[in-house]
Structure formats: C-alpha cells, structure tokens
Amino acid sequence: MKIATYNVNGVNGRLPVLLRWLAESAPDVVCLQELKAPEEKFPLQTINDAGYQAIWHGQKSWNGVAILSRIGEPAEVRRILPGDPEDSHSRYIEAIINKVVIGCLYLPNGNPAPGPKFDYKLKWFQRLTAHAQELLAHDVPVILAGDFNVMPTDMDVYKPERWVDDALFRPEVREAFKNLTAQGWTDAIRTLYPDEKIYTFWDYFRNAYGRDAGLRIDHFLLSKQLKKRLKAAGVDRHVRGWEKTSDHAPVWIELSDK
After folding, report:
1. Is the four-CA dihedral 122, 246, 230, 197 of positive or negative sign?
2. pTM of the entire predicted model
3. How does pLDDT run across 79-94, given as a tens digit for each residue?
C-alpha cells in the first residue's frame, strides 16, 4: 500500500498539478492539506474521474483537509480533533482504509511567535498528542500524516540558525513533536533515512527551491504495528519544480501487506 501526504496549497487552483502527480505516482491513499475551498467547492467529480474516492473537511479560503483512496471508500471516523468543540478550523480528518486508521492533519503555523497564534498552535499540539495516545491505546495500525509545521531537528532545516525564533522551529514546538513521537510513533522518513538531508517544503521567495533552501515539515508517524511493514519512503521533490505548483512536495511511504 502506497500512502502519500501533500499540502496542495489550494486544491482547485492546483488541480492540474494534483491530477498530473496522481497519474504519475499512483498512490493508493492520499492525505491532502490546505484545500482552501469550502465544502461545496471540493472537486469531487474530477477526483472520482481520476480513480479516487474521497472524504474532505473544507473551509473557505483557509485550511481544509481530505483523504483520497483508490483501494476502497474511506470510512470516516471523525472530522475534528477532540479537545475543543468550538475550534472552527478545518485541520483534521480521520478514516479507516484497508484496516488502517489514517489521521490527516494540518497543524497550525503559529507565527508570529510569541502571540495568540503560537498559543493556539501549542494547544492544538496538546490536543493532537492526547488523541494520538488514545489511538495507540486501541492497539490498531495507525498513521498520522500531514503538514505538521515543525522541523524536528537541525537536520530538517536549511540554515537552522536563521529559524530559531520561528514558530516552526522554536524549542516549545520541537519539544511537543518529541513528546508526541515518544509515545511510540515511528517517524517514517527518518527511520529509513537517518542521516540524509531531506526537505518537503521550499518557499516561493528568494529562489528557495533552486538553492535547495528547504524545510522538512511534512511527516508520517506510524504506530508500532506498522513499523515492520515500512518498506520504502520518499519525497517527490521534482513536483515542486512544476509550473503553478504548491510550495510543498508530495511525501510518500510504502507498506507491505503483512
């Protein structure tokens, strides 16, 4: 089973890029973030025509997450992260596909930090950590995938000294990610590539992609049941070089059937 995560940065505006990548890469399951489209504007028919069924949680102009599948309809479990019933941001959706629980998430950016947006990010991280612990307690295969908006280590960011005050790299955020993975989650990319420079995001400004001035902020966390099933992982970084593309590249993993 090949599973991908992709911050598409506007599902309708980047639809040609998304369809081109789906045809080229042929993932079985895709977690999308930053749809930037309300519920009724999600391009379901086009996605269906590409061979995928979908569930989504949209929001006008901002946020938005979706799970696509070509190996059976995603059985939706929830479309909001527990812990704050008044949270109106569309940042989490969860489904069961092929007996695997998949949580697709778009963690808040948090800038400027310090400030209310950073506080919201840390509180959202706390909610995610609590829910992740509950998922592990059910003793079922689980994947948490998406744009976490955190570079866990210096290896995950171009020139880390320039990012020390950024909400994606502040000590509180890296500690939150560390606490989350300490529950027993496997960082799929780092497990297979422990010492390699790997980025998943390049800003549109200052020729960041051309200079390879990137960040690794899109992650796959696997529960213990899936660690031994992890066979391959990678970043389709060439997609970042396409015309009218997202500032993120698709990230993917491959799991064996058993």
Report:
1. negative
2. 0.98
3. 999 999 999 999 999 9
